[in-house]
C-alpha cells in the first residue's frame, strides 16, 4: 500500500475536460475506442441516427468560443496562500475569503470542492459598456507569462489594469463575445463544484439576460432551468429615465438536477396569517373558507343541498359543479368542516385550517423590495460597516443581504454544513448574509467568497481594493453580530473567516520543454533534488497539499509533536503530513498512530535515502499508504 511517489500533480489543477471524459467513459464505455471518444459510437449509444443536412443545428456561438473552452481546459499551476493577518479567528473559522482572479481560484479549488457546494450565488459584471472584467484573449503563454498574470499586482498589492483587466465597451466589436468568453469557463467549473442537490443563482439585467439563459442552457442543460426571478431593485420610479424606468434586475436560477431539486418553503407572512379566523371557536384553530364549487365537470356535482336553516339550494352556481360528492359533503359536515355562515343559511364553504396547510409558502418569481430589499438599502448596509473616505468609493449597485438570505432559505439547509460559494464576491454581501442567516436560525452554513484585488477609485490607504472592502465588511459584520442581544442563537466565539490569496505554487514545476542536451537534463534533475521551492513556508505548503489531496480549506489541522519533530494531522489523524525535518526516532511513534496515509515532501529526509526507505518499509508492514513528493 506504500508508494514513494503518486500521480498527484503538484503543478496543476484538475483538467475539467479530463474529469468529464472519465465520467462519460464510466457511463457510456462503448463510446470510447483506444481511449479516444468515438462521436459516431456515442450517437449510436444515445439512439441518434438522423443526419442534419448541412451540419446546421441550434446552438449558441460567438467569436472566441473555442478559445474560451481552451482556457477552461488549461490547468492552473497556482495555489492559495494563507493570510493570517487578514483573517478573523483563522484556526477555528468555517468561512473562507480568497483574494485573486476567480477563474484561477476556481481551478485551484476544483479538486477539494468538487461536488460539495450546495448553493452558488454570483453577481457578475452586467456588461453595461462601462464594466471592466477579465476575459481570455491570450491563449499561448509561457510559464513566466502565466505566473506574472496570476500574480499581476503592483508593488502596492493592487491588480494592474493592464493585461487581462480591461474595459469592455459597447464600441468593441466583440462586446457580447467577450462577456460570454469570460463567463463560460467559470460557469463550467461552477457546475462541477455543485452537489447533485445544488442550485445556482445568477444576477443580471437586460444587457445579457438573453445570452445568459442560452449559456446556462449549454452548461447546465436546459432541462435544469428552474426560474427567472424578477427582483424589484428600486422603491420609486426614475423620472429621469429616457424611455422606461428600469425598476428590476433578474436572478436566473438553475439546479444541478432540476428533476429532483426542491426549493424550501418560505416563511408565511403576517398578511397570509391574518386571512385565517375562528368565528365559530373551532378547537382546531383559525381557518378560512374555501369554495366548494369548481368549473371542471363532475358527474356527482349537481345535487341539491339543504342548509341547517332549512333553506334548499337547488345546485351549484351557474356554470359550475360541486367539487365533492354529496356523501363527502355529509361526512365533512359531520366533522364540522363545513361553514354555513353565522345563521346557517349560506352556500356551504369548506374550512381550511391554518394548522393543516403547508408550514410555509411556495416561492414566486416576483421578489418585491418590501420583502428582499432594494439598492438603497444595500448601500446603507455597506456604509454602516465600511468607513469609506468619500461617496465615489461606494458601489453603485450593491445587493441587499435580504435578497441573498432569501436564496439561502430556498437553497440551503439550516444544519449539515452546507457550502455557499460566491466567486464574484464584490463587497462580501454573501458572507454577511450567511453570517446573519446562521445567527438568526442557528444554522451552520459555510461560505467561500472570491474577489479580485480590483483598485477602488477614491479609496483610502486601508481600502485600496475591493478585496480590502470585502474583508473589512466581513470583520465588522462579525463584530456587529457579537454585540447584538436579540439573536435567537448566541454567536460562536470562534466565528470568523480564513483569508487566502492566489499565489504561485510552493513546489517546483518540471520543465520538459527546452531540454535539448544531457547537460540541460542534468541541470533540471539537480533542480529537482527537492520538490519544494527555496523559502517555501511550512503553512503555505500545508494548505497547498490540502487542496491537492482534495481537502477543504476549513479542514481542522492538528499539529503533533513526535519524538522532537512536528507533523500535521487531519481527520482524527487518518492523514498525516510531514513537512519539516524528519528523524529515525519519529518513525515508530508515527506508525503507531495508525494513520491511513502519510504524505511527506522529499526535502524532510535531508538526502537520506535510507531514512526514507525505512519509513516506507514500516508503512508497508503496517498497511499505511506512504506518499513522498
How does this structure look, described?
- This protein has 629 residues and is of the alpha/beta class.
- It has four domains: 16-73, no CATH class; 78-128 and 184-267 and 361-504, Rossmann fold (3-Layer(aba) Sandwich), CATH 3.40.50.150; 270-356, no CATH class; 518-628, no CATH class.
- The chain has a ten-stranded mixed sheet, sandwiched between helices.
- Helix 3 (65-73) packs parallel to helix 6 (175-193), helix 6 (175-193) runs parallel beside helix 7 (209-220) and helix 13 (429-441) runs parallel beside helix 14.
- The longest helix is centred in the N-terminal third of the chain and has 19 residues, at 175-193.
List key phrases describing it.
elongated; five-stranded mixed sheet; 26 strands; 629 residues; alpha/beta; 18 helices; ten-stranded mixed sheet; 4 domains; Rossmann fold; single chain; 30% helix
